[in-house]
Amino acid sequence: MQSRAVALMSESALAGNLTALARRAGVPLLLPVKANAYGHGLAEVVAVAARHPDVWGFAVAVPQEAAALADLAPGKPILLLTPPTPEEVRPLADLGVRLPVASLAQAEALPDHARAHLKVDTGMNRLGARPEEAVEIGRRLAERGLLEGAYTHFATADEPDLSFAHEQLARFASVLAALPPVLAHAANGGGVLSFGPLPGMGLARPGLAAYGYAPPHLRDRAPLTPVMTLRARVTHVHTAHAGESVSYGGLWRASRETTVATVGVGYADGYPRNATGHAEVLVAGERRPVLGRICMDQMMVDVTGLPVRVGDWVEVWGAGEITVSDVATWGGTIEYEVLTGVGARVERRAAP
């Protein structure tokens, strides 16, 4: 069966981004590959990143991702970023997964062969131990020989105002100063691009930046290229006559005879429905508007004057004329949500 939509993952773009970010950070990378590698395809991304000399290991959000990753990248360190349930601790430790610890109870529940990364909440107020609690937890882990690393997460490192990020960094540094030497990491993509090398850090964790995206004010800090190109096939070509409407609700009405291509991608595949009325795609190298309401499985495009046939590919987004940033803006959302929303029925393929 032919795929109606394909997400192409550029191996060269990913490798180039990893090199650029490691150079900017001055340390190896702990690459986040949660949420199917930010929608890009876990297997496709890991096949490149596991061989990259600047990638120390991988970070995931849930135990299922850790288990899948252990099969894809045997021998590479894997850090689980969110707390496991008590029943999951030993199986994860048996796989060699590094476990997050943010309480004395979690520390005491670890088996003797576990490796732990102390999670310090320096102001994100999502997960982690407060600095005044983290030191005691870290010391307990160190006494048992389980403490490999410590980490925190910046809340505002991708903003122009870095004052709160500096406060977070100072809180984290105070914890590190009270512990034996550990593998410390704090910088997400915004942190890497905003700060560059950070004193005392052994790793960096750039997420979205590794896949080619950064806030406009940080784009000159490292040469990044979007990794994913999303293409979809034309499934039908027809004519809408003047006065006829297209799609649900009759939001768009033809003012002239219009050649319409139906394209096999919709909001069930991750394209934001809220981009209705704004969206464009590339057809035969030309930007063309999406007509009317975006559907669950399809969208309709004005291809008047173009030699379009059923089976042709349309570029929905990529690294050039139309990017995920454009689609996110049209949909009133962020690149993270668009990329991670790419559905399971969109085929993932590696590309050069």
Automatic annotation (TrEMBL):
Family per similarity comment: Belongs to the alanine racemase family.
Species name: Deinococcus terrestris
Pathway: Amino-acid biosynthesis; D-alanine biosynthesis; D-alanine from L-alanine: step 1/1
Cofactor: pyridoxal 5'-phosphate
Domain of life: Bacteria
Residue ranges of every copy of the Alanine racemase C-terminal domain listed in the record: 227-351
SMART domains assigned to the protein according to its UniProt record, in alphabetical order: Ala_racemase_C (SM01005)
InterPro entries, per the entry: Ala_racemase (IPR000821), Ala_racemase/Decarboxylase_C (IPR009006), Ala_racemase_C (IPR011079), Ala_racemase_N (IPR001608), Ala_racemase_pyridoxalP-BS (IPR020622), PLP-binding_barrel (IPR029066)
Active site: 34, 248
Function: Catalyzes the interconversion of L-alanine and D-alanine. May also act on other amino acids.
GO molecular function, one term: pyridoxal phosphate binding
UniProt: substrate binding residues: 126, 296
One Gene Ontology biological process: D-alanine biosynthetic process
Name assigned to this protein: Alanine racemase
Lineage of origin: Bacteria, Thermotogati, Deinococcota, Deinococci, Deinococcales
PTM annotation (N6-(pyridoxal phosphate)lysine): residues: 34
Keyword Acetylation: no
PROSITE patterns, alphabetized: ALANINE_RACEMASE (PS00395)
